[in-house]
Amino acid sequence: IRCWSNIPFITMPLSRAHGKSFAHRSELKHAKRIVVKLGSAVVTRGDECGLALGRLASIVEQVSMLQNQGREMMIVTSGAVAFGKQRLRHEILLSQSVRQALHSGQSQLKDMAIPVLEARACAAAGQSGLMALYEAMFTQYSICAAQILVTNLDFHDEQKRRNLNGTLHELLRMNIVPIINTNDAVVPPPEPNSDLQGVNVISVKDNDSLAARLAVEMKTDLLIVLSDVEGLFDSPPGSDDAKLIDIFYPGDQQSVTFGTKSRVGMGGMEAKVKAALWALQGGTSVVIANGTHPKISGHVITDIVEGKKVGTFFSEVKPAGPTVEQQGEMARAGGRTLAALQPEQRAEIIYRLADLLTDQREEILLANKKDLEEAENKGRRLALPLLKRLSLSTSKLNSLAIGLRQIAASSQDSVGRVIRRTRIAKDLDLEQVTVPIGVLLVIFESRPDCLPQVSALAIASGNGLLLKGGKEAAYSNQILHHLTQEALSIHGVKDAVQLVNTREEVEDLCRLDKLIDLIIPRGSSQLVKNIQKAAKGIPVMGHSEGICHVYVDTDASVEKVTRIIRDSKCEYPAACNALETLLIHRDLLRTPLFDQIIDMLRVEQVKIHAGPKFASYLTFSPSEVKSLRTEYGDLECCIEVVDSVQEAVEHIHKYGSSHTDVIITENEETAEFFLQHVDSACVFWNASTRFSDGYRFGLGAEVGISTSRIHARGPVGIEGLLTTKWLLRGDNHVVSDFSEHGSMKYLHESLPLPQRNTN
């Protein structure tokens, strides 16, 4: 006889010692004890007869992974009735076929009818097989599983309740996964719905209520309810206006319309929501998600535990501001209003923002000082290049203001500009005009000065804007966004630019394909790579690396070489347009020019890495480079030797990132060969790589530098944030008039464009 005296039994579920539920999704990764409820639609096949074995195996794999991380996993499962129905059907068909073969002949086998099977009998026949399947699957991961069958009486009888509680605690202590199900073979009819009214009990009418009751009894941190829908919608799923609710709060159920229950099982979405709210009231976090979708079911449980935006998260903490989805809709509506303004009005907003940057410099610098102090005091210890990016100064703000005024001056005819006119036929004229892209998501790190730059470009191009800045610049970003909205308010378009302050992970933002039209990352190469990988269905404009080359030709000017190399590498080594690989013609080795280059790099304390060919020429060489595709972002560079300008071009194409590449030579023919053959976004002759910048190009500012071959390339200013639409003006024209026997003919005449405003 086991003694359970050392087990902390629960008699009043709502007076729990472990406190409140998690307030945010990001906290779910701290969940220690987790209940996974598998709905009938998740466990069973589409024909409701038999189990979805592949789906079940994937769920077991995820539960095993979390169990092996040290978490305590429990499963509340359906499926016994479906599994039993499959077995009983097989037995009935087999017995009927034998009898009919003996008495009636084979011809009547096709007329056999399968009787309606009673659910309790199916459950009795299916329980053992279902458990055997779970055991076999968990054994593959060296995990033991145990079956527990319960009824509502087990929770109402105090002694049975204590026994159940103790058994579950002991199984968890021994690293065993309990698999719980209602004992459908003997379960009584459900009680009247007298629970869920603020009392301490919830009747076990289905596996939803069982999972909620169990989660509260066992002080569970997280309850994951898997069904055949993505989560909770504001109206029945499938209807035109139905939107997935990301976070559901107590009291919100009044604004939700519930549809019918799932194709199988006892409980519908209304039952799930009631059970989830009861569990939430008891201190357990809840997520309702889709466990049947083939693209996500293989990682839905682990994604939820990692805090990713999957399904509907139930929370008692309602944020003070709008959700990111609401911000996206506000940016869309605000952007459309912004695009409808007159060009002079958009320019006026930008001029106002430029004035605010200088008028409010003291407040901006004070906020920036708080960011810098927190970076020092909270142990973040940002690298020196990142601290330099984070820091604002009076000169930086003045430069920002100048750049914004350039944007305002150049934006007069950016939106609605006619770029093509064609007369299709008599009185049928076609125009192609520039329009905003829509809603931009700009994600930037440690660069508060990026916020007003990008905002001004979005305003000038009539785009709605979502901004996600790094937490290290939180105070600076807040005040700069406040000033941006103050400037927007002069023409009533305050909502066009939104700063995302919620805890959304970047990966979750990249999934909002119905709200965002273009993602522009501004930050480290790793950030850009992560965003490019995470973005599903949303184009990403930018570059993952800035591996910029400078090629020194045999005809290079001695006076120009060291100046250009020093500026390209040392002026701002953390920039994406800084020199990373220096290519030197072989004939320049052991010449005074080569010695001057090396001496200058040593004086500037640039660490040199030797390329393979360069190392082969030296008796004592610097450390050999590990990879010729390295972006150092610091006072380091690689030196490699090439035999010709052709070889330099081939090296750049093989190891470069199509960002910015430079030739230093006095030979015009060689320079033109380089300019025409290097396939990069920016290619320069006798100029520093650092000129690859929107401000220096006269664009006023840039949202980033793109190495993409579609849409925009190089520093992206206003033009890169525009697309086009076609306007056709006719007079009762129909295509049938242009048929072989029609009365009209196509003209396709090019028409002159309206004169641009060049002021």
From TrEMBL:
Pathway per the UniProt entry: Amino-acid biosynthesis; L-proline biosynthesis; L-glutamate 5-semialdehyde from L-glutamate: step 2/2; Amino-acid biosynthesis; L-proline biosynthesis; L-glutamate 5-semialdehyde from L-glutamate: step 1/2
Single Gene Ontology MF annotation: glutamate-5-semialdehyde dehydrogenase activity
InterPro entries membership: AceGlu_kinase-like_sf (IPR036393), Ald_DH/histidinol_DH (IPR016161), Ald_DH_C (IPR016163), Ald_DH_N (IPR016162), Aldehyde_DH_dom (IPR015590), Asp/Glu/Uridylate_kinase (IPR001048), G-glutamylP_reductase_CS (IPR020593), G5K_ProBA (IPR041744)
Domain of life per record: Eukaryota
Main location: mitochondrion
Location relative to the cell: Mitochondrion matrix
Catalysis: reaction(s): L-glutamate 5-semialdehyde + phosphate + NADP(+) = L-glutamyl 5-phosphate + NADPH + H(+); L-glutamate + ATP = L-glutamyl 5-phosphate + ADP
Biological process according to GO: L-proline biosynthetic process
Cellular component, GO annotation: mitochondrial matrix
Keywords for the protein's UniProt record, in alphabetical order: Amino-acid biosynthesis, ATP-binding, Kinase, Mitochondrion, Multifunctional enzyme, NADP, Nucleotide-binding, Oxidoreductase, Proline biosynthesis, Transferase
Matching Pfam families: AA_kinase, Aldedh
Domain named Aspartate/glutamate/uridylate kinase: residues: 32-290
EC numbers: 1.2.1.41, 2.7.2.11
Domain Aldehyde dehydrogenase: start-end pairs: 324-589
Subunit structure and binding partners: Can form homodimers/multimers.
Similarity field: In the N-terminal section; belongs to the glutamate 5-kinase family.
HAMAP family according to UniProt: ProA, ProB
PANTHER family tied to this protein: DELTA-1-PYRROLINE-5-CARBOXYLATE SYNTHASE, GLUTAMATE SEMIALDEHYDE DEHYDROGENASE
Role played: Bifunctional enzyme that converts glutamate to glutamate 5-semialdehyde, an intermediate in the biosynthesis of proline, ornithine and arginine.
Protein name stated in the entry: Delta-1-pyrroline-5-carboxylate synthase
Lineage: Eukaryota, Metazoa, Chordata, Craniata, Vertebrata
